[in-house]
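Cross-posted from the bioinformatics board.
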Amino acid sequence: MESLIQERVMKIRQFNRFYTNIIGLINQNILESPYSLAEARILLEINNAATCTASSLVEILQIDPGYLSRILRRFKKDGLIEAVRSMTDGRSQILNITEKGRATFRQLSDASSSQLVGLLEQLPQGAQQILVHNMAAIQYMLSDKADTSITIRRHQSGDTGYIAYRHGVLYEKEYGLDHRFEKYVLQSLIAYLEDPSKGEIWIAECCGIIVGFIGIVEINKRTAQLRWFLIEPEFRGGGLGRKLVETVMEYCQQKYYNHVFLWTFKGLDAARHLYQSFGFNLTEEKENDTWNNQLIEQRWDVMLNAD
Amino acid sequence: MESLIQERVMKIRQFNRFYTNIIGLINQNILESPYSLAEARILLEINNAATCTASSLVEILQIDPGYLSRILRRFKKDGLIEAVRSMTDGRSQILNITEKGRATFRQLSDASSSQLVGLLEQLPQGAQQILVHNMAAIQYMLSDKADTSITIRRHQSGDTGYIAYRHGVLYEKEYGLDHRFEKYVLQSLIAYLEDPSKGEIWIAECCGIIVGFIGIVEINKRTAQLRWFLIEPEFRGGGLGRKLVETVMEYCQQKYYNHVFLWTFKGLDAARHLYQSFGFNLTEEKENDTWNNQLIEQRWDVMLNAD
DNA sequence: GCATATAGTTGACTTTGTCAATTATATTGT
DNA sequence: ACAATATAATTGACAAAGTCAACTATATGC
């Protein structure tokens, strides 16, 4: 566990070194201009901000006030900005960009844009989109307002396909199951879609990505089968499984099912503990003869008290 | 089209500003140490490289030779590195990190690691993984050795689920189709999985991400139906559709199918042109009565010459 | 073996950034 | 009302970071 986070840290640091170079590359043309990186950054801020004072720049850009003062003096001398004393506070002065300043800013901006366009054009359209999307995801996750909690929602279009997709990929990797298992999962999902009112699917999402799911289908008025329970490997061991089973069991109570069962494979210790803690008992074991003879299937049942 | 790339450039620049701050945050503790960022970077390079000379550092780190020389002098004085004249080239000297240098490096490294651990620990395990994964993807796509070409492969476990998933999501968004359509797609996929030898699925991937697919199923010895043809919106208009249809048509020739047909929806002009260019003719039109009465379904057929 | 190239160093310099002191205005508590 | 304190912006003095050209020593090509 400790080495897992160390590995991630290593990868992030590697990315940081890599991306520092990329940023350096993109900023190169600014370094070739008569303005420094800091100056360009200041001009950008003055250009974009509605109202801007030296002290607000100090705060936003974490820059030394003295240093800033001199840069602003140069900007004024060059006619890029104008400073007018604030009406409400005689100490501070509002910084406004001039037409010339705007032009200069645009020039700097265009130069670094064309650098970026060059970088993007080496990628096909779709890959560009993926790149930008990945950046947005990183930005979101590292921003303080990121909601990295796991949310659970009901079924939406495409979910059944996604469930089959992840079952296919993960059960092949973990148990060597092939297309026959894939077909079996698809069939079970069709049974649900025949009459969605006779069942439900819950999808757990984190940062817009599906990280786990669970479902229930009615077998008869009092009996329901728990199905399609899967947590993405990276999200296991964090209590998400318990949360999903809880959600299902509550639903069953509401629907007055007094008997719930499920089929699983032998050997999943974490899952066994989870089922046991909800009162499930092992009721049947059989060798799997269609997908993989090594696998032992287990049936677990629980009776719910009417209360 | 032009504004699309401009928008991406804007987003990347925003990410760059954001990430520059993140990197600054992580490097903060190095700035608090008696070594500068550049010095830490140099020490890292000497520590990691098998053999290292001043000139190799100049090239890797793009640093001024004079500046580097002085930094190395200080490192030698502090006992962090040792320089021995190269056997093979009397001009250059091999830089070796000493035990003390390694300790110093580890200290700097640990400090910035702990900063990163703090950042990571605000995220759940799985989200950490997603973050690192996104970074790796960016790094891969922007590196010169990135293969951003689109590759086409055959069916693997999970693909049918993925096909259903994307159909469900995109056909709901684009045509408002609901779970009944989702079920229809699943059913068609099951028919394929019943006997995978009577059909085939091709998956187009870019940078490890599925960006489109197509399939074929045998109807009888001489007739096959083209199915599950979908290109992710961002990857449309780049010739991928043609490439996929081509792949299918070649397969049909090999299998001696002389008649291929498909069902599609009216109004997809790009698709119509594509089908026509492969010799397909519109043979049937009917209102769709199960999913959406607004939609007109079309059947297209083509006879292949035996050659 | 001479011209040229490369590895590394040094001196002189510019740019970039920091820190404390200073002036002018604003705010707060009594 | 006004003294104490806080904030906005500037300035001088300085330190750190980085650049450039000149220089020494060794290597390489013709």
